[in-house]
Design brief:
heterodimer; A: 3 helices; 51% strand; B: alpha/beta; 5 helices
Chain lengths: 578, 164
């Protein structure tokens, strides 16, 4: 017995010594964020105790810690939604360990076990990611391997099942709780210039890549035959010559009937292409895309953004100002065709128009239309988009006349001197609200928007910033709108926005803002949405407290959107990392 | 599950107390604008300090911060030899636009693309903009969340402290 104790003690000492080096040379870091809201009734903007449904307080929070030692790393993330903030999915309610992984990567071969994120190419057939501000997390739980046999070549393999809020794939008694499929994928990329030494710094650059992803699912449908395996593949190429870059990716998916595509058996296709030119002070880019029936989810009954295996990037401009971002385009996975053109130009310093610091100009045009859908012959009957059939025929190079979105905008940004900085943007926007927000029968939004911003630096530590914006729409206070459709017109009509912000000691900021729907067709909706905020930033810590009204709106990140209902009350955000 | 999480947290937190960091750069590989792989753990600036910033084309304060940094970058390089790596966390919607955007704005930073936020996660960047300062040995000496007017002056003070 004594010997055993001694042995154990020795073992412990040895382990401790080893562990110490495992600890002393390690990197430990983490971060933490809490977003909390207190909701209050507010008759002025129609928020009653029923509409807040007894929800007086809500909090979203996460904390994560990661450990790295040489080639080894591991991490965990804890999340709590008690209950989730307004506008987040109720399925998020709860708390627990949302993500954990361990990974080893020596540069030649890498393996990750646990919950992981990755993307193949542009993500057309595979992308797992996490976006806190949307409550979005489609991580795969399983295994990921990365293999880099020679410089410039990367081969990847992924295998697992996706996160679906808090739902476990298997219950405690090991019965399968939902029809979530198994996702498997491989991807390869070869950067030829990186592989061949003599081409390392060549003017001509080429890289190619390809991927294959499949989901394996159980057929639990009583009405349709659901394929057990749905495969998809994609190929991509990047070419560069001097200042020009061309890149394209094409993806194909076999029949994949789902709730999103109305259970049709058509194949899916996606094409993205871009051409750009750039030199110092000038950048030009043209992008085109076509999406046809490309919703790809690991559960065929899933709705909205749930269990997305792929990511279809929108290619329009992302607005940062408050008024234009009320009407943000979100990707239509069942079909869309679009183009975008953007120029960034800086008038050089020292010229009459450029002044001392240069003047920055930007022009952007984007438009997205629907695709054409022609009826097909199904056993002697002409049908269009009927469940259980091949759906429709669509000509690849033609777009429908049905416009979803168009945006033309122009921006000037100018630093006048050490104290003054001004920015102005004009936007002309077309937004098919009926399609994008699913309000059937709603007239399109056709708006002109002007946003002006001026910053005055009082000294190195204190500054003032003023923002003024106006949005003028086709629908306004003079429009004749049927009283029965009133509720859909909550945010329609003309808007004005003003914000004043004071930053002091380059740590603190206070701001007051008002957003006023003065031109709503309904007088009861001509509301002021005023807010006041105070915030503090030091090193990696950020604390913001705001109070006031939030208008109904859409928060979008990368074309994935979340609707935020109107609310009134307080919001506290604390974010830090170490 | 909760207990397990708590246990893990405690273990890691304890380990954190003892951690003596030698190099704070994570072992993550992302791409530069030419499509070349860059392993962040190998970033350096010949023994001189360097800055890693996180930004996105859709983030107003980020663009402001980088415009401000761009105005002073030549002076900073001359005085301290500092180098700025500007990591874009734009997703694939904007990958093709980054190069024309950066060049069109006249920014001269070394721009890297973190298309699926792998580096941002490894470095605990919750929201952009986010700025890190590293000394010549790759040890992190300063970090800052967000951008307020004058943030760049604070950063420069920190750079001056470690520049030889």
């Amino acid at each position: 017995m004594k010997r055993l104790v001694l042995l154990s003690a020795m073992l412990m000492v040895v382990l401790a010594v080893r562990a110490q080096s495992f600890i002393e040379n390690a990197q430990i870091n983490g971060s933490f964020q809490t977003d909390a809201q207190v909701y209050m009734e507010d008759d002025g903007i129609g928020i009653t105790s029923e509409s807040i449904d007894g929800k007086k307080f809500a909090v979203n929070g996460f904390g994560k810690v990661a450990y790295a030692y040489g080639n080894f790393s591991a991490g965990i993330r804890f999340e709590a939604f008690q209950p989730p903030l307004n506008g987040f999915r109720e399925e998020l309610k709860g708390a627990g360990l949302a993500n954990f992984y361990a990974s080893h990567d020596n540069g030649f071969i890498g393996i990750t076990v646990g919950d992981f994120y990755d993307q193949f190419g542009n993500g057309l057939i595979f992308r797992t990611y996490e976006e806190w501000s949307l409550g979005m997390d489609n991580s795969l739980r399983g295994v990921r391997t990365v293999f880099r046999p020679i410089d410039g070549v990367i081969l990847k393999g992924v295998y697992g099942r996706q996160r679906y809020y808090w739902a476990p794939y298997r219950d405690r008694d090991m019965t399968i709780s939902d029809e979530r499929g198994l996702v498997r994928g491989v991807d390869g990329e070869w950067d030829i210039n990186q592989s061949i030494q003599s081409l390392n710094d060549a003017k001509f650059r080429v890289s190619i890549g390809g991927s294959f992803v499949s989901k394996q699912q159980e057929d639990q449908s009583m009405f349709y035959y659901i394929p057990k395996n749905v495969g998809s593949f994609a190929g991509r190429i990047n070419l560069g010559y001097g200042r020009f870059t061309f890149s394209t990716e094409y993806a194909y998916k076999i029949n994949d009937p789902s709730a999103i595509n109305n259970y049709i058996y058509k194949e899916g296709q996606a094409l993205l292409a871009s051409l750009s030119y750039s030199q110092k002070g000038l950048g030009i880019v043209l992008q085109v895309k076509r999406i046809d029936n490309m919703s790809f989810k690991s559960m065929y009954t899933a709705q909205e953004n749930d269990l997305d295996i792929n990511f279809i990037p929108p290619i329009n401009y992302t607005h940062t100002h408050s008024l234009p971002s009320m009407y943000t385009y979100s990707t239509q996975p069942n079909g869309e065709m679009g183009a975008q053109f953007q120029i960034n130009y800086t008038i050089p310093k020292g010229t009459p128009l450029g002044g001392k610091y240069g003047t920055k100009l930007a022009l952007n045009f984007s438009q997205v239309n629907d695709i054409i859908r022609d009826s097909i012959n199904d056993n002697g009957m002409m049908v269009l988009n009927m469940p259980g059939t091949d759906g429709y025929k669509s000509s690849f190079f033609e777009a429908s006349g049905h416009k979803f979105y168009r945006d033309i905008n122009f921006e000037i940004d100018k630093k006048i001197n050490k104290s003054w900085h001004v920015n102005a943007q004009y936007i002309n926007l077309f937004y098919d609200m009926a399609t994008i927000e699913g309000h059937v029968g709603m007239p399109d939004v056709e708006a002109n928007i002007v946003a002006l911003e001026a910053t005055y630096k009082i000294n190195t530590k204190n500054s003032l910033r003023l923002e003024l914006q106006g949005l003028w729409e086709k629908i306004n206070k003079n429009s004749d709108v049927d009283e029965s459709e009133k509720k859909d017109y909550l945010k329609r009509g003309d808007w004005a926005f003003a914000l004043l912000e004071y930053t002091f000691a380059s740590r603190w900021f206070v701001s007051v803002a008002d957003k006023y729907n003065y031109g709503n067709p309904f007088s009861e909706y001509r509301d002021h949405y005023y807010t006041g905020s105070i915030g503090f930033v030091k090193d990696a810590t950020r604390v913001t407290l705001s109070a006031g009204r939030q208008s109904e709106g859409v928060v979008c990140v990368g074309g994935v959107c979340r609707v935020v209902p109107a609310s009134s009350g307080f919001t506290l955000t604390v974010s830090t990392s170490f | 599950m909760k207990k397990l999480a708590l246990f893990f947290l405690m273990v890691l937190a304890t380990a954190g107390l003892y951690a003596q960091t030698k190099n704070d750069l994570p072992n993550v590989t992302i791409k530069d604008l030419a499509g070349k792989d860059v392993n962040i753990a190998t970033l350096s600036n010949d023994g001189k300090p360097f800055v890693i910033t996180f930004w996105a084309t859709w983030c107003g304060p980020c663009v402001k911060e980088h415009n401000a940094l761009s105005d002073v970058y030549d002076d900073w390089k001359e005085e301290t030899g500092v180098k700025i790596f500007a990591v874009s966390i734009d997703d694939s919607r904007s990958t093709a636009k980054i190069k024309p955007f950066v060049e069109g704005k006249g920014w001269e930073f070394d721009v890297l693309l973190d298309t699926n936020k792998e580096l941002a996660r490894a470095m605990n960047v919750n929201n952009p903009p986010f700025t890190f300062l590293f000394d010549g040995n790759g040890k992190m000496v300063y970090q800052h969340s967000g951008y307020l007017e004058g943030s760049e002056d604070d950063l420069y003070k920190e750079i001056l402290k470690i520049a030889k």
